[in-house]
């Protein structure tokens, strides 16, 4: 099935907007009560729960992160391995292409700490990111190693919840939220870039770069307010 048709089918099945959701399962696999379901209103973190392909939350006990491709050391890491990496906290605003945003105090680690373990080859200039819900994206290595980009394990003093991308999500503050992949399961280092699944399906709405453009913002943490933005990471509020 071509990527465009797959995305359209997923959304027609009730997947919602693309930011990452849960792993799809059949009804034989149990109740939907543990599924990650999209919301139309902001939650207590001033965020909407966006889902690409709603399904049950990944089990952190069995979850693994695979790193392969142009690496000196292909890896399969458990959550406990990531929790041993040097931790940082960072306040940054997640801006959705739907025109809302929310500021979050993220906790996690820089990509460089993780990639040091994998020993990328010099020609590795892109990273393909695959997620538990079959969402995927391509990120330039330079963007991944940017000083404001991080992999998040927690938010606002709590462990990251599955509805916001646990066990592992990416945060790129200068780009729209669909570039901050959630429920990450695999990183493939490559010398060939590409478009993410949503930019490929809707090129007029989801741009390949995902750069935040000048315009207006409706921050959920400032209810009822509209703010003008200059483009790029929102740092003014």
Measured between the Cα atoms of the first and last residue, the distance is 43 Å
- Arithmetic mean pLDDT: 85
Helix content: 10-25%
Radius of gyration: 17 Å
Q: Please report the first level of CATH classification, the CATH class.
A: Alpha Beta
Low-confidence stretches: 1-31
CATH T-level fold name: Sulfite Oxidase, Chain A, domain 2
Q: What is the CATH-assigned architecture? A: Alpha-Beta Complex
Q: How many domains, as an integer?
A: 1
Largest sheet: 7 strands, mixed
Q: Roughly what fraction of the amino acids lie in strands?
A: 25-35%
Order of helices and strands: HEEHEEHEEHEEEEHEE
**Total number of helices:** 5
- How many strands appear in the DSSP assignment? 12
State the fourth-level CATH superfamily.
Oxidoreductase, molybdopterin-binding domain
The general outline is globular
């Amino acid at each position: 099935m071509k990527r465009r048709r797959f995305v359209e089918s997923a959304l027609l099945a009730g997947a919602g907007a693309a930011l990452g959701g849960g792993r799809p399962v059949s009804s034989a696999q149990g109740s939907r009560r543990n599924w990650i379901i999209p919301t139309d209103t902001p939650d207590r973190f001033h965020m909407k729960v966006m889902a690409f392909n709603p399904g049950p939350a990944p089990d952190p006990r069995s979850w693994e992160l695979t790193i392969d491709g142009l690496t000196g050391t292909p890896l399969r890491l458990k959550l406990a391995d990531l929790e041993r990496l040097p931790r940082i906290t960072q306040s940054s605003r997640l801006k959705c292409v739907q025109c809302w945003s929310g500021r979050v105090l993220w906790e996690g680690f820089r990509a460089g700490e993780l990639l040091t373990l994998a020993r990328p080859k010099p020609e590795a200039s892109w990273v393909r990111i695959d997620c538990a819900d079959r969402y995927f994206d391509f990120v330039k290595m330079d963007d991944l190693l940017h000083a404001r980009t991080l992999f998040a394990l927690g938010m606002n003093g709590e462990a990251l919840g599955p509805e916001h991308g646990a066990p592992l999500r990416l945060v790129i503050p200068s780009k729209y939220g669909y570039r901050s992949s959630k429920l990450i399961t695999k990183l493939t280092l490559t010398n060939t870039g590409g478009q993410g699944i949503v930019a490929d399906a809707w090129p007029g709405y989801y741009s390949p770069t995902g750069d935040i453009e000048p315009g207006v913002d409706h921050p959920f943490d400032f209810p009822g307010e509209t703010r003008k933005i200059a483009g790029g990471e929102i740092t003014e509020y």
